[in-house]
Amino acid sequence: MSHYCDLAPEHPFHGPYHDHEYGFPVEGDDALFERLVLEINQAGLSWLTVLKKRAAFRAAFDDFVIDRVAAYGDADRARLLADAGIIRNRRKVDAAIHNAGVVQGLQAEHGSFRAWLEAHHPRPHEDWVTLFRRTFRFTGPEIVGEFLMSTGYLPGAHREDCPVQARILAAGPPWARAAAPTA
C-alpha cells in the first residue's frame, strides 16, 4: 500500500501540503478551524479535490475567521451552497457554520480551540472520536483521525524515514511531547 510520503513529493498540491503542513503543530484557532472544515469536506472525496479548492474555500469562508463564520445566516448559507468553487454539500456547510459556533464556546470556556485540544490530549483515537462526536457535527472516525494527525495531535502523518518527519519532531507536535519520557 502506498503511503502519502510516497505519493506527495513533487506533486503540485500534495507536495507543499505534505512538506510544510501535514503533521506539523498548528497554533492559531482560525488555522485549526480551517483544517477541521477541510477534513469534513474531504469526506467521501479525495484530498486532492479539497486541496485544489482550498483557495476558494478560504475566500468563501472569510479566511476561516471563526467569529465571521459563526455569524453566518441564511444568506451566507445560500451563497455557500451556490459557490461552485467549493464543495456544495448542505450537511458540510451546515456543519462548518455550526462548528464555528461550537469553537466560540470552547474559546470562551478554555481560552482557545487549541487550549481545548491540549486539555484533552493525550488520548487514544477512539476516545477522541467520542469527544468530537459529542462536541461537533460531521466528525466521524476518519475525519477526526485525519484532523488530529494533520495538526500534530496523533502520530502517523509521515513514515519514520520521511525527511519531513525530522522537521515535525523538531517542531514538537503534541503527540511527540506526550510520548516523551518525563524526568
TrEMBL record:
Transmembrane segments: none annotated. It comes from the Bacteria. InterPro entries: Adenine_glyco, DNA-3mA_glycosylase, DNA_glycosylase. This is DNA-3-methyladenine glycosylase I. It comes from Halomonas koreensis.
